[in-house]
Amino acid sequence: MKKSDVAIVLVVILIYVVLFSGIVQTASIEGVSMYPVFQNGFLTFYVSPSDISVGNIVIYKSTVGTYVIHQVIHIDGNSYVTKGVDNITNYLPDNKIGLEPQSGIPKTAVIGKVAEVNGFVISIPYLGYISILFSSL
Known about the structure:
CATH topology: Umud Fragment, subunit A
CATH superfamily: Umud Fragment, subunit A
Distance between the termini: 40 Å
Helix content: 10-25%
């Protein structure tokens, strides 16, 4: 067995341990509002919503019942105002287009914060399509 094979096996084991321990969870990306950070079909990882600041990407359940993954652009007391990073499809904050209340998302409605390492968002291209496919069945 080559060293590269051992490294791949160790990475896969690490991913399984992290995912099944409940420390980190996954979410699949549908849509283009977060382009270029995420593209349709990306799989990303998120952790519990603690220490959220402007610029962090959070996951919340919108007022229309869908899950949204957007960037925090303003914090006002106990709520967050979010927006997709693609200014072509998302030129207004979510509280102006009805995805969240006018005052923003209550902190209690945030499900998670997208995992980052040194400011880089962790995601895997195309792997999210598997989850999207099974959720549509």
